Amino acid sequence: MIKEFVKNLEGRLKRPLPGAEAQKLMMPVESINSRFDLNQNNARLGGVLILFYPSDGEIYLPLTQRHDYGGTHGGQVSFPGGKWEEGDLDLEHTALRETSEEIGVNMSDIAVIGRLTDLYIPPSNFRVTPVVGFTEKKPQFNIDPYEVKELVETPLSLLVKKSTVKRKDILVRGSYSLNAPFFDIAGKTVWGATAMMLSELVEVVKELKSNL
């Protein structure tokens, strides 16, 4: 099951992607179009991993809930990943390394099949590259309790359901609210940059399903 899906997805990722138009479907109302300007010369670089794996006859991907340390993205649900560091060969390496550090999946067990569209995140001044990969077997996750509060194993079938997308006012850092669409995953609110990257993924997956 996963091999056929990955083969079709890999081929799709080699063609032009939905990009910003798909990302905007999950953009907060108050967000600004400058986040789609990828020529931010002073932006820090980061990589996150969208990791597909089989479990119980379905295709899953892991999300992580951060601890709420009061930072820009504290307490939010996101992909495993982080900032580029000296020594990383490229942003794919960054995404794989951070995934290994955060949730314990060996880099050598992950096959990279492509990327989605980069996204600039104004609050933290990061330009993030979403890397797409898979494992043929369900990983033995081993989360770093300092980096990750909770692992959120997410079935792909849930992401593509219309009912999973909702909207509400979200309180940001306890000081102001944003009216934002979000993915309701296991009762968790997945919004902001992660939701925008997931939105592009969902559009691509729906396109694959319609062509099968």
Automatic annotation (TrEMBL):
<keyword id="KW-0464">Manganese</keyword>
<dbReference type="Pfam" id="PF00293">
    <property type="entry name" value="NUDIX"/>
</dbReference>
<keyword id="KW-0479">Metal-binding</keyword>
<protein>
    <submittedName>
        <fullName>NUDIX hydrolase</fullName>
    </submittedName>
</protein>
<dbReference type="GO" id="GO:0046872">
    <property type="term" value="F:metal ion binding"/>
</dbReference>
<dbReference type="InterPro" id="IPR000086">
    <property type="entry name" value="NUDIX_hydrolase_dom"/>
</dbReference>
<keyword id="KW-0378">Hydrolase</keyword>
<dbReference type="GO" id="GO:0010945">
    <property type="term" value="F:coenzyme A diphosphatase activity"/>
</dbReference>
<feature type="domain" description="Nudix hydrolase">
    <location>
        <begin position="42"/>
        <end position="177"/>
    </location>
</feature>
<dbReference type="InterPro" id="IPR015797">
    <property type="entry name" value="NUDIX_hydrolase-like_dom_sf"/>
</dbReference>
<dbReference type="InterPro" id="IPR045121">
    <property type="entry name" value="CoAse"/>
</dbReference>
<keyword id="KW-0460">Magnesium</keyword>
